[in-house]
Write a sequence for this structure.
């Protein structure tokens, strides 16, 4: 462990003289050594604490990533398919999201998902949160 740095008492001695200055200097040097020891102990203990915190953060991030790709199942009617891959759907309640039934536009993850579908069909579809909105990740006609 490095020795605690000596304090510069030039400014202190300008306003405090004699025995008071010696007492103040001794008091400060004693406390600086105590603080230096405390800092050394904290620094030595911080490595395991930081490792534990990093591990906990990693677990949290993994859970958040898993939640972010969570799929939500829904049923509805396909009203319209736009060439850009946007669909208009009137869906029933989506309980996992707390959504009531409504008519909405959704982007599909891939236009390939739309192959063979046409307006007016009853559908089952899956939604996942992506880029701040919900995207259809799977869609199929109800048979």
């Amino acid at each position: 462990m490095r020795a605690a740095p000596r304090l510069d008492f030039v400014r202190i001695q300008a306003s405090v003289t004699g025995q008071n200055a010696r007492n103040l200097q001794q008091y400060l040097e004693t406390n600086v050594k105590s603080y230096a020891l405390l800092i050394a102990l904290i620094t030595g203990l911080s490595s395991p604490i930081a490792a534990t915190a990093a591990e906990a953060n990693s677990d949290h991030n993994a859970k958040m990533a898993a939640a972010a790709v969570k799929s939500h199942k829904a049923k509805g009617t396909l009203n319209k398919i736009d060439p850009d891959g946007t669909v208009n759907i009137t869906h029933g309640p989506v309980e996992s999201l707390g959504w009531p039934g409504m008519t909405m536009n959704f982007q599909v993850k891939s236009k390939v998902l739309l192959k063979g579908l046409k307006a007016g069909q009853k559908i089952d579809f899956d939604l996942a949160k992506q880029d701040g909105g919900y995207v259809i990740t799977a869609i199929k006609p109800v048979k």
Summary: Confidence is low (pLDDT under 50) at residues 9-14. Helices lie at 10-15, 18-68. Residues 129 and 138 are 13 Å apart (CA to CA). The beta strands are 71-81, 86-91, 102-108, 122-130, 133-141.
